[in-house]
Amino acid sequence: MGGADGRRIALVSGANRGIGREIARQLAEDHGFLVLAGSRDPTKVEETGSIAAFELDVASDASVGAARQRVEADPGRLDVLVNNAAVYGGHEGVGDYDLDRAHEVVETDLFGPWRLAQAFLPLLRRSGHGRIVNVSSGAGQLSEMDGGRAAYRVSKAGLNALTRVLAADEARHGVLVNSMCPGWVRTDMGGAAAPRSVSEGADTAVWLATLEDGGPTGGFFRNRRPIPW
Q1: What are the residues facing 185 on neighbouring strands?
Q2: How far, rounded to the nearest angstrom, does the alpha carbon of residue 221 sit from its chain's CA centroid?
Q3: Helix residue spans in the chain (DSSP H)
Q4: CA angle, corner 14, sides to 126 and 10, nearest 5?
Q5: How many CA atoms lie within 13 A of 65 on its CB side?
Q6: What pLDDT sits at residue 3?
Q7: Is 97 tagged catalytic?
Q8: From the candidates 33, 97, 152, 220, which is the catalytic residue?
Q9: Of the chain's two ends, which shows fewer C-beta atoms within 10 Å, N or C?
Q10: What is the per-residue pLDDT for 2?
Q11: CB atoms < 10 A from the CB of 54, how many?
Q12: DSSP codes of every residue in 126-184
């Protein structure tokens, strides 16, 4: 992955398709980043001179540890972490949800970002301009919480709480930490009937990844505007 040439470095999880792939593309093509595109199957990542694929399973301590070692060795720094990798799970409510399946959803959607944050905070702190963007969902908004999709809702509500705690923890290091909701987007998860394009869904995440120093932290955003938790 050498040859960063002074470019800012971003790591995007789940970057092989959908919103993650578009976030990686926009950061690389529109903002001049070298993007480290993490995926459980890196052969599915579209590599370019500015997008480098590598294997990453956010639910695996070993995989995340190997990714950390690789990034520490080359390029040796990191400016932005975008926690995009997620699984949707089932539509069942709390009473009917299989708890083993629920554990799988929460492990990926909540503990995955937590695991990546722990692994890469030392590099983000050293950046002096570190940014963490957690791709969340309106399904995790307590202000509008509804029934069904229990594991996904709980995991995204937990991710929003993690954002608030992490933002407060890292304020002294200058690391800005925010959550965002992409809206209902035409992806494999969102389906063909969704009203928003992948480009529209990725926009707020890219905006948060490229915030100037002194920008917002500990917030939840959609369409670049704050939304209720």
Answers
A1: 196
A2: 13
A3: 18-31, 61-73, 99-106, 112-127, 150-170, 198-209
A4: 25
A5: 3
A6: 47
A7: no
A8: 152
A9: N
A10: 46
A11: 19
A12: HHSS-EEEEE--GGG-GGG--SS-HHHHHHHHHHHHHHHHHHHHHGGGT-EEEEE---S
